[in-house]
Write a structure and sequence with these properties.
Blueprint: E1 15-16, H1 17-33, H2 38-55, H3 57-63, E2 64-65
Parallel strand pairs: 1-2
Helix pairs in contact: 1-2
Length: 70
């Protein structure tokens, strides 16, 4: 699930922290809409992977940028 254009700032590999947190929330909401089974588990695994990335300071320093003020 790609990030909306306003959340990917300079590069496809740079994101805002708020954008990643919102993406994880949305994936979890979508997972709850599936019946118990493979699709639901896949969505949950994606959310778990995002949570692990959000806890990794090394990954965050390389891929997350500060949000710009309008």
């Amino acid at each position: 699930m790609p990030l909306p254009a306003d959340q990917a700032v300079n590069s496809p590999s740079h994101y805002t922290m708020a954008g990643l947190v919102d993406l994880r929330r949305q994936i979890l909401r979508d997972a709850r809409s599936f019946p118990v089974g493979a699709e639901r588990n896949q969505q949950r695994q994606i959310a778990i992977s995002l949570r692990r990335l959000l806890k990794s300071t090394t990954w965050l320093s390389a891929h997350v940028i500060e949000a710009r003020s309008p």
